[in-house]
Amino acid sequence: MLDARRLRLLRELSRRGTIAAVAEALAYTPSAVSQQLAALEREAGVPLLERTGRSVTLTPAAVRLVDHAETILAVLEQAAAELAAARTELTGALRIGAFPTAVRTILSPALVALSRDHPRLELLVSELDPADAADALRADALDIALLQEYDYVPAEPEIGLATEPFLEETVHLAALSPDTLGAHRDSSWIAGTPGTLCHRMTIRSCAAAGFAPRIRHHADDFGTVLALVAAGQGVAFVPDLGALDVPAEVVLTPMPIRRRTQLAYRRGTGGHPIIAAARRALHTAAAEKQSHPE
């Protein structure tokens, strides 16, 4: 019988490429990952890894097993969801991952509603960049999370996850005057930390306008970004949810750029009563925010 936890490790190895990366993502030691994968090989009865020095690659049998693992893990999640549906009251932990502006504007009212309607739920929130959310879901560190994509930074299909549309926002150019994007080809820019979606969107949006932005400051909090713009330190892109408490000096000019957010959870868990309750609360909070943006 194949162990589902070990199948999850093999799937992560197929995505991350090294045992060290799997260990870091799942809070194991590299030796523990190696031992579990060796045990999975014994269960499978065929070689799953080809070892060359310190590197490993998946054998053809392992690649086929990873394909099956996606289905197996989703079916197990669905079975757990159906068992949970038989309970009369929602109890247990709900681990939610969201980006900072969503925590302040959408997640907070959703948490109030969940606490009121399901007082025995233990609500656990992690603030993280959307670029990290999918891996956290696959690693079973989160139950539901918000993923994002921007125009010019489309999202890749997320293996092992189910997603649904959640929110779409306009991206604005924050500056000290209502200028066009092209007017700031020689300006200083404020962008997110390298590696974040916001940083990549800034670079690609400017490239589409025919120039490379001269990024002077890196900030991930849009309140900080707006304060830097107000101080004359540069210009920046700011989405709707980030446009809170805009300084009087700052002008927001809507751009033909959109940020789209999706709700994501592991395949098979969408019908779990806890996940279903979270989905309802989050959608209600997002609809209320869009109806009353101020």
Automatic annotation (TrEMBL):
UniProt KW DNA-binding keyword: yes
Keyword Transcription regulation applies: yes
Keyword set, alphabetical order: Activator, DNA-binding, Transcription, Transcription regulation
Listed GO CC annotations: protein-DNA complex
HTH lysR-type domain span: 2-59
GO MF: DNA binding; DNA-binding transcription factor activity
Domain of life: Bacteria
Protein family (similarity comment): Belongs to the LysR transcriptional regulatory family.
Record protein name field: DNA-binding transcriptional LysR family regulator
Species whose genome carries this gene: Nocardia pseudobrasiliensis
